[in-house]
Amino acid sequence: MSHAIFHSGENWTAGGLFFPRTIPLHSMLVSCGYETRTSASYDFNGLLRGQAEFAIFQYTIGGEGSLDYEARKYKMRPGDAMLLHVPHAHRYYLAPGTPFWRHLFLTITGAEAIRLMREAESRYGPVVNLPPESPPIRKAVEMILKHQKQELKSPFRTSSLVYDFVTGLHDYFTDATRGTERLNSILIRTVHNFCVRHLADDIDVDDIAREAGYSRAHFSRLFHHLYGIPPSRFLTELRLRSAIRILQIELCSVKEIAARCGFKDESYFCKVFKRYHGVSPKTFRQGNGGTPFPRDKTV
Fold first, then answer.
1. What is the overall mean pLDDT for the chain?
2. Which of 45, 229, 282, 289 has the smallest count of CB within 10 Å of its CB?
3. 203 vs 196, 200, 239, CA distance in Å?
């Protein structure tokens, strides 16, 4: 996305988009804009904003924000969007020590728009990852720029734009499920290959998610859904399988195996190995036909 919204520190926000109440409309824009927040005073609690119901779409452009959603915590990084409704038990804020959080936002009201936003929040959110060039972001930017240029003069046209954006979110994520098996296979293969290449390195879920092209939160949910276990456990089990292979066929010390398989030290490796397999690496090697290392032998 080439617009200055994404490539400058310029701020613009507007609220109070009111039209005469002629025909009831079920989708409407309340406020929108783009801004960079640098103060820890930026802090919104979803239970302290009154009883009027509305929905929020907020997309991170730069920096980092924080979201507490019910019992979960998220870090909002570039490409992450929040799908929220008010009133609800959430809080989003600029955490102390965080330099800035740049984002664009839409505040939406209307019974049907809120229903669809809440459905999206439930199905895909509260945090989703969207490329800057994706249709939902293009539509959000279009709406903001039209308001900035004072082109939103018709309540019916404005309502149509809001409805198009909200239904477009669902359309985007529905389209994203087409060819799911192929995409999922690519994801699993990408993750597996990356982990194998960096098995001896100090990698974690953040590194794997970055390689896969997702935020940590979205990647963790997606991977768990596809593979049945958290990515952290997948990495640990991959390291342990490699360790077992080495124990069985190679002449290496336990310390060397720990280093080759990415464990921070021998003690931690032995602890994790015993938790998964019930015995120490040395005992496993002696009882499973593995190649004993001279120093592992009992004299």
1. 88
2. 289
3. 11, 8, 12
